[in-house]
Specification:
It is built from 14 helices and no strands. It is mainly alpha-helical and about 425 residues long. The longest helix is centred in the first third of the chain and has 31 residues. The two termini are about 30 Å apart.
Length: about 425
């Protein structure tokens, strides 16, 4: 008598496992793609300053290259996601990674030659800004396709943990990429870019070899997606993404200035302290996203906790008077930010139908491009008014996100608290 319910429950769990447990090879492959892609992107960021000086360019030229990448990312991410809904995640990832590899290789060759015989400023600016813009255009396909692949393979109640694996890979890439680039750059800047070229190439080979070409099981011929900017189902993930990217870019662009001005440091010491603070953020990201893979909380709860921690951490920066306080505040903020990203990705995936996964992931990813364009400008303008202002603004925005997550909990579908 007592064995019947247990057998029934065990059968149900087994059936769910057969239907929803993701193929480990597929998840490991997209996690490596995220890791390698982030390392390659951050390697460029690490060397753009010295490269700018060696080629006789101005600081705003480096800023222009980053802004151009963000603008094309914003314009293309949603279309890439929709394209992956039609032709499959594997094909889109292979196209994007192949283009990424070619562009990185051409840029590395140019920089290698330019360092030996510097061309005119207009040529250097055109090539570097153009290459960076094209990288933003093609790499914009990777995050939505990877997230949509996970959404295809993983049950809704397990997506947050699976997305956290992707987020942890990104976080490790953010920390390791600049570190390795810094070591290599001591010997030769162009070698950094050659090594960065190998990363998308290895990712391309891995995707072609190991990633299953998983299509949407619910639809042979997907209907035209209804996902759009004003889709009520994605209102919270869109807002969360915008707030997150604004918070990251504002605090990244101002930390160097803040360390110099608030802590009365030299330019060299300010750069060192800023680097340690960003490393603290990266460490917080890794810790929090590793923790998320061990727990199965609903996405709104992770989002609430993450937004509160990040709000406290970044707002506290406005009060710091010592280096250790700055590192502690950034570490707390990093833990919070690490909880937000996988949660909002899972929310977006859970809010739409199977044939809309790529479009939803692409729409959310496109918001990153907007934040990459708006955030640095907003941060520097606010900093000129008051060094504390950018951090207080970020704290308020994240507190608003926490409130929105708390209100969203009532309408969570298919999740339990």
């Amino acid at each position: 008598m007592s064995g019947t319910p247990s057998h029934s429950a065990a059968t149900q769990v087994a059936d769910e496992a057969m239907s929803f447990v993701p193929a480990p090879i597929g998840l490991n492959a997209v996690a490596f793609v995220a890791l390698a892609g982030t390392m390659a992107m951050m390697a460029f960021v690490a060397v753009i300053g010295p490269l700018t000086r060696l080629l006789g360019l101005s600081e705003w030229h480096a800023g222009l290259s980053i802004t151009a990448a963000g603008a094309l990312w914003m314009l293309s991410a949603r279309r890439w996601g929709e394209y992956s809904d039609r032709v499959g995640r594997r094909r889109v990832l292979m196209i994007a990674l192949a283009c990424f590899t070619i562009i990185c290789a051409l840029l590395a060759v140019f920089v290698d030659r330019a360092l030996e015989n510097p061309p005119s400023v207009i040529v250097s600016v055109t090539v570097i800004v153009g290459a960076r813009a094209l990288i933003g255009l093609v790499y914009a396909a990777v995050p939505p396709s990877a997230a949509a692949h996970i959404a295809d393979q993983v049950a809704p109640d397990r997506r947050t943990s699976a997305m956290a694996r992707l987020g942890a890979a990104n976080a490790i890439g953010m920390v390791v990429g600049p570190m390795i680039a810094g070591w290599i750059a001591i010997y030769d800047l162009s070698v950094v870019l050659y090594v960065a070229t190998l990363l998308p190439l290895v990712s391309l080979l891995l995707v072609g070899w190991r990633l299953p070409d998983a299509r949407r099981p619910a639809s042979r011929t997907p209907a035209k997606t209804a996902v759009g900017w004003w889709d009520g189902r994605l209102r919270l993930p869109i807002y969360a993404t915008f707030v997150t990217v604004i918070s990251v870019t504002v605090t990244q662009v101002t930390i160097g200035f803040f360390a110099i001005d608030r802590l009365a440091l030299s330019a060299a010491d300010g750069a060192r302290v800023a680097g340690f603070a960003l490393t603290a953020v990266g460490g917080g990201l890794i810790v929090s996203q590793w923790s998320m893979t061990r727990l199965t909380w609903p996405p709104w709860r992770w989002l609430l906790l993450g937004a509160l921690l990040a709000s406290i951490g970044f707002a506290a920066v406005s009060l710091i008077v010592a280096q250790w306080q700055l590192f502690a505040a950034y570490a707390i903020a990093g833990v919070g930010m690490g909880l937000i990203r996988p949660a909002l990705q899972a929310m977006a995936a859970n809010a739409v139908e199977a044939h809309e996964q790529g479009a939803a992931a692409g729409l959310v990813a496109s918001i990153q491009g907007i934040g990459m364009v708006v955030g640095p400008l907003a941060g520097t303008v606010l900093y000129r008014w008051s060094p504390s202002a950018p951090y207080l603004l970020v704290g308020v925005l994240l507190l608003g996100l926490a409130i929105a997550a708390w209100r969203h909990r009532v309408s969570s579908v298919g999740e339990t608290s």
